Description:
By secondary structure, this protein is of the alpha/beta class. Helix content is 45%, strand content 19%.
Amino acid sequence: MISFPATNTDTAVLGLGIDAGGTQTRWALATADGAIVADGAVEGLSALQMSSEAGRAVVHATFATLCKQVLAVGQPRAVVAGLTGFGGDDVVLAQTLAALLALDAAHVSLGNDIEIAYRDSFEPGEGYLVYAGTGSIAAWIDAEGVFHRAGGRGVLLDDGGGGYWIAREALRHIWRREDEAPGSWQASPMARAVFAHIGGSDWSLSRAFMYGQDRGAIGRLALAVAASVDADPLALDILQRAGQELARLALALTARHGPRPVVLAGRAAQLHPAIAAAMRAALPVSLMMEQKVARSHEAAAKVAARTASVLARTDYFINPNTDLS
Length: 325
């Protein structure tokens, strides 16, 4: 879905911000004064997909869809993108975006999605961001710009409290109970919601879901877990433990770097109030904690727009006929 601008973008100097996660990839266009003139979303992606030919094809197709949406609104002059799994060494990603948008690759800046999310909440040195999406991570960018982390090791290793973790915990408990008492899922509101999401109660369906889907698709199963919280104590327990896992990340950074305000963000953190409540209860009373809705794609767009404005003025000095509006 695209949110179209209320202002004229035909002559505006635009910057494009992209926040790519496992579940969804969001984009926004901003003008140099910081106004967001359009935004939208496409399928999720990860920079880790670039390790295989099939994965690269998926990333290219997703970027192509995104760029088509963007160009229907206006032509950006600069791009700032944050991608989950980005390690800082994949020039093909920048070249792909640049080609799709008819830009110089030098005007496409890529980074980790969490770095962009951090700057949506804090200036460097200010506080700790705990982000729960498909995975989970805590981040601090110090006053010198150095990135520090806790967690974020990937869903196969950990990422406790993220959407994938919640989904895996739910299915783990459901199938352990089925081992003990076959058919017991019918008395569990959470199990019924989970099985409705994946298409049925046969083990073959759960197996295909967990081992045949990408991590973003698995993470979305957490929605079914959250929807059953009021009717199923086990679902509530899973979400409360998710909050405790996220608190652990904040406490790890606090132990290493001292107490600072904490912001909790990410789509998984918004699944149910029980997650934030459990996280708050697991933190010291003295530690300030705030939950916010992340707008990382907008923050990235504003940074890109400032770069775009500089590029436009540079173009003007080279060619005085350049439009700076």
